[in-house]
């Protein structure tokens, strides 16, 4: 007997969530809907517990956006298991939908159109059939790159924000002016970001995702949703028995986690 296809809906608007649930059940016989999630944290927990094959994810949610939730899910997804297919549900106008390339990730525009949902279902079914036929468990490279691109395109940019050259960071009652060239890595820590140099560690009150927008992406690489490192500081990357990667630094003891979404940076030349 064929196992039912597990689908997770993540949507913080109850009426829209219920409507999408009803449309999916009517248009896609044989699927099984998981309990609906109305926020990013619930989405991450449900996805990693039940491992759905398809996720319909609202982009705009309080505290944790759909993009952030999707990244967290894919980072923790079991190695060797086919990645879930992602469909983002968005209220962005048509001008912004060019951000989606119709490749690794699909989208639905609010208010939902049954015709558009039917086309999305057909695309999902085609991709599922291709995966079954090829036995390909999927790769995070395409999805990870697409999530990063979408985050950069769709996230509002800070007006007038200039690229950083110096970090003003606190250590107790002292504020240090740290040249960006001295920073080994940044690490998210609750409401703060740790700034780590060879001499000290300090804190800044800024979300890592906002800090990234003011860093040169050629010099500073994101390795994980919580870690950004100065590329020239990386000495090696090691693969562990559980399949996870970690990055070691020149002359520093830190071992930084490397998400599967960013592992493509370290393919052997």
CATH topology-level fold name of the largest domain: Rossmann fold
Separation of the first and last Cα atoms: 45 Å
Count, helices: 6
Mean pLDDT: 85
**Which secondary-structure class do the elements indicate?**
alpha/beta
GO molecular function: DNA binding
Protein name: LytTR family DNA-binding domain-containing protein
Modified residues (4-aspartylphosphate): 58
Organism: Roseateles flavus
Which structural traits does this protein have?
2 domains; 5-stranded antiparallel β-sheet; alpha/beta; 5-stranded parallel β-sheet; 15 strands; OB fold (Dihydrolipoamide Acetyltransferase, E2P); 269 residues; Rossmann fold
Describe the structure concisely:
Helix content is 29%, strand content 30%.
Molecular structure report:
- It comes from Roseateles flavus.
- Keywords: DNA-binding, Phosphoprotein.
- Residues 6-125 form the Response regulatory domain.
- Residues 167-269 form the HTH LytTR-type domain.
- InterPro entries: CheY-like_superfamily, LytR-like, LytTR_DNA-bd_dom, Sig_transdc_resp-reg_receiver.
- The chain is α/β, with parallel strands linked by helices.
- It has two domains: 5-154, Rossmann fold (3-Layer(aba) Sandwich); 166-266, OB fold (Dihydrolipoamide Acetyltransferase, E2P) (Beta Barrel).
- It is 29% helix and 30% strand.
- The strands form four sheets. Strands 2-1-3-4-5 form a five-stranded parallel β-sheet, sandwiched between helices.
- Helix 3 links the parallel strand 3 (54-58) and strand 4 (85-90).
- The termini are far apart.
- The model has no long low-confidence stretch (mean pLDDT 85).
